[in-house]
Design goal:
The structure holds two protein chains of two kinds. Chain A contains six helices and no strands. By secondary structure, chain A is mostly helical. Chain A has a single domain, classed as Arp2/3 complex 21 kDa subunit ARPC3, CATH 1.10.1760. In chain A, helix 4 packs across helix 5. Chain B is of the alpha+beta class. The radius of gyration of chain B is 48 Å and the shape is rod-shaped. Classes of the chains: A mainly alpha, B alpha+beta.
Chain lengths: 177, 277
């Protein structure tokens, strides 16, 4: 049920991103809300459900963005696995870690997209603007914390008996994943 | 003392009554036949009139306050009613203005459509690319309406892009300002040919030799070569021309004729026998 809710939430955020936020002035930027959702899934969801969710999000983004099929599923999957690996070594799922994590991950994803297209679609050109990239990183850093709290609340509300359904086997020690 | 009061009482009464009678007689005789106020009348009138005016002024003052207060209640009600009416008419005015603007835009599109030789279909933009890497948007027509990949997309102002891909109900359009877009064009005045490519928010004209004369303000139109865009559609206006020391070609920046940020409706030019099938 939670996966269903998150898929619907992802679709809703994408629709909002492609219809409402694109009408704002360019200097204001267009926040990538789905990216924040992917980040949350990568930090809080277990491996198997997380992979399903990020692949679906990637497919949805592929439909609306660009014309290189498979780009976003690959990038989101790579992001998911990277964060899972990092979180096994370092704590990254605390609220205070979210803003720098969001900014850094967006920068890495942008570089990954550029490399992916350069290697697998060399004939395709991509728009690269440092101004837009830095603006997006800034916006995501600001929105990361409130979105993290909101999504955590949603998970808590939907989870049975107040426990998170994403991590059924979690021990009381938060330093053990 | 008692003997005195018994004798003087009837006298005092008689004196009083006779004085009244005399006075009455004097007054009756003095006013008989007169139509003007006498001097005593005027004197008394002036004094009493001044007092009257003062009292009336005070009464009027308080009367005005009272009437003003009562009037204000009515004025407030009337004001509220008129404000509501103004709001209603303002919103109607906005609706009518929007309808007029849409009407004008659609008339422009319709006139332009009728000029195009091939069958066309008007589509509405329903969503834009969420990422910063590509310049695409979605329209509400697709293969079920005869729209297929590669078809040019235009407006009355000029070239917008071409159909990239689509599902059964929606199609994706690659904007001409995307770096992956390339259109064969020629300069309207000099007929110099080149290829225009997107830079994200404008165009760059490539493969124009340095010996060609290109000026700022020159209009670029589609050349019809390549079979994608019909000939003669406006694409952009030359905004800067730079001749570098190295290289054979001019470095030409072109400003699009279409404002991509304000697009709402577009026309898809379909292939000639698409609708018949």
């Amino acid at each position: 049920m939670l996966i269903t809710v998150f898929i619907i939430l992802g679709a809703f955020l994408l629709v909002v991103q492609t219809t409402i936020f694109v009408r704002t002035p360019q200097w204001l930027g267009n926040p990538d809300l789905l990216f924040l959702l992917v980040l949350f899934v990568a930090t809080k969801v277990d491996k198997y459900r997380g992979i399903i969710l990020v692949m679906i999000y990637g497919l949805m983004m592929d439909i609306f963005s660009g014309f290189v099929p498979g780009l976003y599923p690959a990038v989101y999957l790579g992001l998911f696995l990277t964060i899972k690996y990092i979180s096994s070594q370092v704590i990254v799922d605390e609220p205070t870690h979210q803003p720098p994590l969001a900014a850094a991950c967006y920068l890495l994803c942008s570089g990954a997209i550029y490399l992916y297209i350069a290697i697998f679609n060399p004939g395709t050109n991509i728009l690269w603007s440092w101004r837009d990239l830095l603006l997006q990183m800034f916006i995501l850093a600001i929105l990361a914390l409130p979105s993290y709290h909101l999504l955590s609340r949603i998970v808590f509300k939907i989870g049975a008996n107040g426990k998170s359904l994403f991590s059924p086997g979690k021990s009381g020690n938060r330093f053990i994943s | 003392m008692r003997k005195r009061s018994r004798r003087t009482r009837p006298f005092k009464q008689f004196l009083f009554i006779s004085t009244c009678v005399v006075l009455f007689g004097v007054l009756a005789l003095s006013f008989m036949g007169r139509k003007e106020l006498t001097l005593p009348h005027r004197f008394i009138f002036d004094i009493l009139g001044t007092a009257q005016a003062g009292v009336t002024g005070v009464i009027n003052y308080f009367n005005d306050i009272q009437e003003g207060y009562i009037d204000l209640i009515g004025v407030k009600r009337e004001n509220d009613r008129l404000r509501d009416e103004i709001k209603k008419y303002q919103s109607l005015s906005v609706t009518y203005r929007e309808a007029l603007a849409t009407n004008t835009l659609l008339r422009k599109l319709l006139d332009f459509k009728e000029e195009l030789p091939q069958p066309t279909v008007t589509a509405r933009i329903i969503g834009r690319d969420p990422s910063q890497w590509f310049k695409t948007f979605s329209i509400d027509h697709s293969s079920s309406d005869g729209v297929s990949k590669g078809m040019p997309v235009v407006t009355a102002d000029g070239v917008v892009g071409q159909i990239l891909d689509g599902g059964n109900r929606r199609a994706k359009v690659l904007e001409a300002i995307d770096p992956n877009s390339a259109i064969e064009v020629l300069i309207q005045d000099t007929r110099t040919q080149g290829i225009i490519k997107g830079t994200g928010d404008s165009y760059r004209l490539h493969y124009v030799l340095k010996n060609n004369k290109v000026n700022r303000g020159d209009l670029l139109i589609t050349s019809g070569l390549g079979g994608v865009f019909p000939k003669g559609l406006p694409v952009g206006i030359v905004s800067s021309v730079v001749s570098n020391r190295r290289g054979m070609f001019l470095d030409i920046e072109v400003k699009p004729v279409v404002d991509f940020s304000k697009l709402e409706n577009v026309i898809v030019i379909m292939k000639s026998n698409q609708l018949a099938e």
